[in-house]
Design brief:
This protein has nine helices and six strands; from the N terminus they run H-E-H-H-E-E-H-H-H-E-H-E-H-E-H. By secondary structure, it is of the alpha/beta class.
């Protein structure tokens, strides 16, 4: 993230919002003149994510976390990016119905770089130095590596903090070997395992004890076995090779 300009206390705000499941909280600031937290949620709804986390869980967590800041933006993506903020602003409290009405697609491939390029081009004001970005994705990207590198660099430079919730990272032996996750991890302030609300509580406990700049994330999950590592996913290669993530449904 860019070092210049005012910041909200992203560490404390993240801790509080995760601990409350995203319920509105009094957002702390590091100085009286600073503005309050903004939140941008980027939720991967590709086939590979839906193999691990069901739609209802994704929607409930997005709905909860979008309430952590008064100014929140919510985007879903697989091969394309969709701004679904209005669905989570609905007074009737039924984002699933709103998303059905909006014909949001679920279960495609994973093009994180393309999604970030669309965010940068069409919604540049969704992220600024007051924004905490929360990405929910398994990182099994099948797109252009250069586009992904450009996108994650822009996101990290522009945001106050980038937190990544990865369904695969709940495995005790997870390592970010996939091309997409390996490219993004250096730009992420914290990477946590995520399969449901209990994992948000675990992330909040880590932040409470250690802070965003401390030893937090999947490597410090008490469920993890030191020294273990997952084998690459079927068809998945490291480095510059293309991830298949189980084919076109990654």
């Amino acid at each position: 993230p860019s070092p210049s300009g005012p910041r909200v206390d992203a560490r404390r705000a993240l801790r509080d919002s995760l601990a409350t499941g995203g319920a509105p909280v009094e957002l702390p600031a590091t100085a009286p003149t600073e503005s309050e937290l903004r939140c941008c949620l980027l939720v991967d709804v590709s086939g590979s994510v839906l193999d691990t986390v069901d739609r209802a869980t994704l929607l409930s967590v997005a709905d909860a976390l979008s309430g952590a800041a008064r100014d929140s933006r919510v985007f879903l993506f697989d091969t394309e990016l969709a701004d679904v903020t209005d669905a989570f602003d609905r007074a009737d409290g039924d984002p699933a119905a709103a998303l059905r009405a909006a014909s949001v697609e679920w279960g495609g491939g994973t093009l994180i770089g393309d999604a970030l390029a669309t965010l940068r081009r069409e919604h540049p004001h969704a992220v600024d130095r007051r924004t905490v970005v929360v990405v929910v994705s398994d990182g099994l990207d099948v797109g252009d590596p250069d586009l992904l590198d450009d996108g994650i660099t822009w996101l990290a430079d522009r945001a106050s903090a980038v937190v990544w919730l990865n369904p695969l990272a709940v495995s005790p032996s997870f390592e970010p070997r996939s091309r997409g996750m390996a490219a993004c991890e250096p730009y992420v302030d914290a990477l946590f395992g995520f399969a449901g609300p209990a994992d948000l509580s675990a992330a909040a406990r880590q932040l409470e004890r250690r802070g965003l700049d401390g030893a937090v994330g999947y490597r410090h999950d008490p469920r993890r076995r030191p020294g273990d590592a997952d084998p690459p996913h079927s068809g998945e290669m490291t480095g510059g090779s293309t991830d298949t993530g189980g084919g076109g449904s990654a």
